[in-house]
Amino acid sequence: EIYFPALGDVWKVQVLPKMNVLTSSCVVIPCTFQYPGERKSSARVRAIWEAKDSTRSNPKYIYHNDVTQVMDSFQTRTRIVGNLGDQNCTLEIDKVKTHDDGPFCFRVELENTDKYSFTDNCVTFRFQENPDKPVLVHDAKAYEGSAYGVTCSVMHTCPTHPPNLTWSRDDAKPVVYHKNIGFGKWEVTSLLTFVPSANDHDEDLTCTAHFWGQRTEVNSITLNVKQKQNFLHIIVPVIAVVLIALIFGGVYKWRRTQDK
């Protein structure tokens, strides 16, 4: 940070120092910044993302609004998804590769005024070769003929291309929720509600997470469906006994009446 006591302003950026990313998928790096003076429109703010060892004589840009300035290995893979006019410098990197390890730093250039590279606040990546497994939440028992709900959730780092969650049964339409967990993590959740039958007992229910970059991961549960209790084998004999009792009771009462 650089302070300007007379103005009460500061050059400042907020980025995460480390992020977990899935190779071949995408990552969104949350980023906000401040600069001295009044806020400027997006057209008057130039955003640059560069490697930490980038110099003016040997620039290593991973994002620049002049795409010819971007390193070949990052061509067409980066874009600003934040609003620079709102001091949001959030960056997306697509098709993440293991050599995209960083550190990567943000640089801002204000039209006709100042520019600053935030080399003390950069981001590095920890790579995941395999996606996270979806988490399934459900009641232990389902009941035949009664609505039953199961949620499938998975964490990710790319809200611009979130995972698509699908189910192994298509007799109900799931409801999908998206949540910003913070710290560069997001969560997508799919809620499936259906009415199980007796035939669903011991059947597998599978949720598949389709990540951007053609990566998938699955998780399953085995349904434990309790059948409706059939009380006919109890009710019918009881009714028969009651009827017999009523009949004999009526006959006995009639005979006593006749005897009098």
Automatic annotation (TrEMBL):
<keyword id="KW-0812">Transmembrane</keyword>
<keyword id="KW-0472">Membrane</keyword>
<dbReference type="InterPro" id="IPR036179">
    <property type="entry name" value="Ig-like_dom_sf"/>
</dbReference>
<feature type="transmembrane region" description="Helical">
    <location>
        <begin position="231"/>
        <end position="252"/>
    </location>
</feature>
<dbReference type="InterPro" id="IPR007110">
    <property type="entry name" value="Ig-like_dom"/>
</dbReference>
<protein>
    <submittedName>
        <fullName>MAG protein</fullName>
    </submittedName>
</protein>
<feature type="domain" description="Ig-like">
    <location>
        <begin position="131"/>
        <end position="224"/>
    </location>
</feature>
<dbReference type="InterPro" id="IPR013783">
    <property type="entry name" value="Ig-like_fold"/>
</dbReference>
<keyword id="KW-1133">Transmembrane helix</keyword>
